[in-house]
Amino acid sequence: MSVHVSGDGSAAPGMSPRENTRQLEGEIAVLRDELTGLVAELDRRRHELTDFKLQARRHVLGVTLTGASLLASAAGFVWLSVWRSRRRSQTTARMGRLREAISRMVDRPDRVATEPGIPARILTAAANAAVATAIKKVLERSLQRAMSPQTSRDHGADRSSGTERRARDGTSFPVTSGGTVEVPSTGLRV
Prior knowledge:
Elements: H1 17-50, H2 52-58, H3 60-89, H4 91-107, H5 118-147, E1 164-166, E2 172-174, E3 182-183, E4 188-189
Antiparallel strand pairs: 1-2, 3-4
């Protein structure tokens, strides 16, 4: 369908304005129907694209090959790391590494017994602090367990009253209202 409109937007000679309007409305309706169909098709394709089950059914071979290749590559990496670790533990490999280390010592003797740098000192100090904190926590927990009423050496203390707890050596300690044990000589609450 063609519109009889001149370049300046005026109606073509010989057509009434009503006929020209009807003709334009008809063409607009046809274009709108075509666009509606195109948008509907795009929407359908979008839904199909995001439907993973449908895509897996359509492309079974590709999905299977991709999964198998990922699994094979993961297994290959595991096999390679095991092979390398076994190879490194062999005596010949250890001797080769020792030979390389000695040759590095001969080439650069100034680097053999050097002082650690500042970053190494900082890391050492941080590691020492972390280990000290961990040891302190372990000791605190073991002290709490030693003072707890669930020990097998609890010789008849009244557990229901909660007024007294016994240590492993049989020494009894008073229990506060909050359920903590107070060691009288130190003031320590556990």
